[in-house]
Amino acid sequence: MARYTDSVCKLCRREGEKLYLKGARCFSPKCAFEKRGFAPGQHGKTRQGRTERESDYARQLRAKQRARRVYGIMERQFRRYFSIALNQRGVTGTNLLQTLELRLDNVVFRMGLAENRSQARQLVNHGHFKLNGRRADIPSMILQPGDTITVSETAKTRTFFKELPDISEKRNCAAWLDRDVKSLSGRVIRLPERAEIDGSLNEQLIVEYYSR
To answer: Which residues does residue 177 pair with via DSSP β-bridges, in sequence order?
Structure first.
């Protein structure tokens, strides 16, 4: 399975804004974006502050790349999600964002059981979660309303999960999810509404990009 292995801080710098890919570190002075807020590469600093007009294609590409990087998805899989959203009823852009939000790794993150999506993906890959009572180790699984997620009994004996209830209590849980911190479990109540999804994402530009 292809995955991004370079520094994720470069992704924030390329987009020109914080994507909060490292969790708490992004809020600390150690954040690379605070030190080097210009785009990475040889000419990144020299282009800082330029006011060149972006073409429509450039804006569409940036919107698509931003969404991919926020959710940690490669291009081929992201295009497949768009095809799924295109074949569903309703607004294609909203369908796409709902599909991305319902990924298993993202739901684990939204429940506050992981600091960021990268950590959530790793925990799922290691088989620490159960979906509807069965072991789930595929981060890209798409959940449906009514699905329940629980931490496996074996995982609860590990130090990380023993300390997790106190940590998760301080983290917000999405309104479309129900979470029980003490039992380290949660449930998808309903589909997320557009207002409950990251407002910096521009789904209309993404639809325009793939509709060229």
So the answer is: 188
How many Å apart are CA 100 and CA 168, to the nearest integer? 22
Q: Which helix (H) or strand (E) holds 124?
A: helix 117-125
Measured distance between the N- and C-terminal CA atoms of the chain, rounded to whole angstroms: 28
Cα dihedral angle (176, 97, 77, 120), rounded to 10 degrees? -40
Q: Which residue, chain included where needed, has tokens 């639809």?
A: 207
d(CA 11, CA 65): 9
Amino acid at 195: A
Give the strands of the sheet with 185-188, arranged side by side.
Answer: 134-136, 129-131, 148-151, 185-188, 177-180
The 10s digit of each residue's pLDDT in 14-70 is 666 656 565 655 556 666 555 565 566 654 555 555 556 789 999 999 999 999 989
Token pair for 73 = 């998805």
Structure tokens at 7: 């520094």
Domains annotated for the chain, with CATH where assigned, are 9-100+199-210 (1.10.1050.10), 103-188 (3.10.290.10)
Cβ proximity of 168 and 181 under 8 Å: yes
Residues 209 and 60 sit within 8 Å (Cβ to Cβ): yes
136 - beta bridge partners? 129
Task: Please tell me the distance from the alpha carbon of residue 152 to that of residue 82, in angstroms, as a whole number.
Answer: 32
